[in-house]
Design a protein that fits this description.
The protein has 11 helices and no strands. With 209 residues, the protein is an all-alpha fold. Helix 1 runs antiparallel to helix 2. The longest helix is centred in the first third of the chain and has 25 residues. The N and C termini lie far apart (63 Å).
């Protein structure tokens, strides 16, 4: 794949915009200036190309998440762990928004397609994250009135849309927004929750000085 930079760029552009089945191989090859004969010889079919692109993204994403994996994330502090994962996610997104969008696009694929893809890579990130959430429920950090599957979906949606909340690439703004997203996941937006009460106490303290 690295031997064909034009194909790589064209494939990432197209797969980032559409689901796999809606992406036109002809459009990719036309944009890359590559013949069908050469393509089929090297990649076999559109799915082979998709696998090559996902592999590139997985390696890129791993470079941001590997330090967290080395830390042996402490799931006894589920929301603290979530903030670290969110920060790594936003840093990955800012490094290449197309790759971020393509990795999110994978969540729009049907379960069968995702299972096929994960089986070939040997890693099911959705399953791993689901296990973290189950541990959060079992430890009492996540309210058991919500199903773990529902919680996973909510977190996935917020993570995949973080780009809509960040107004600039400034590191402080990035980290602040990431932490706010986790606070919303943890406490909701009700006026009466620990974060709001803490802010209220600080305002009263400042006013009394």
């Amino acid at each position: 794949m690295l031997r064909y930079p034009g194909l790589k760029e064209a494939a990432i552009d197209e797969f980032a915009m559409r689901r796999f089945e809606d992406t036109s191989l002809n459009d990719i090859l036309k944009k890359a200036g590559m013949s069908k004969g050469s393509f089929y010889h090297h990649f076999g079919d559109k799915f082979g190309l998709y696998l090559a692109v996902i592999d590139i993204i997985a390696q890129k994403k791993l470079s941001f998440f590997y330090p967290l994996m080395q830390e042996n994330l402490d799931t006894s502090d589920f929301f603290g762990m979530l903030k670290k994962v969110m920060q790594a996610t936003t840093e990955f997104m800012l490094s290449d928004e197309r790759m971020h969008h393509l990795s999110n696009r994978l969540m729009e694929e049907d379960d069968g397609f995702r299972s096929r893809l994960y089986s070939l890579f040997g890693v099911d990130y959705y399953k791993s994250f689901s296990e973290w959430v189950y541990q959060g429920v079992e430890s009492g950090q996540i309210d058991s009135i919500y199903s773990p599957e529902f919680v996973v979906k909510i977190i996935e949606i917020m993570f995949s849309n973080i780009h809509k909340l960040i107004s600039s690439g400034d590191p402080e703004n990035l980290l602040g927004t990431a932490n706010q997203v986790i606070d919303v996941i943890r406490y909701g937006i009700s006026r009466k929750h620990p974060v709001a009460d803490d802010h209220q106490d600080k305002r009263h303290l400042s006013a009394s000085k």
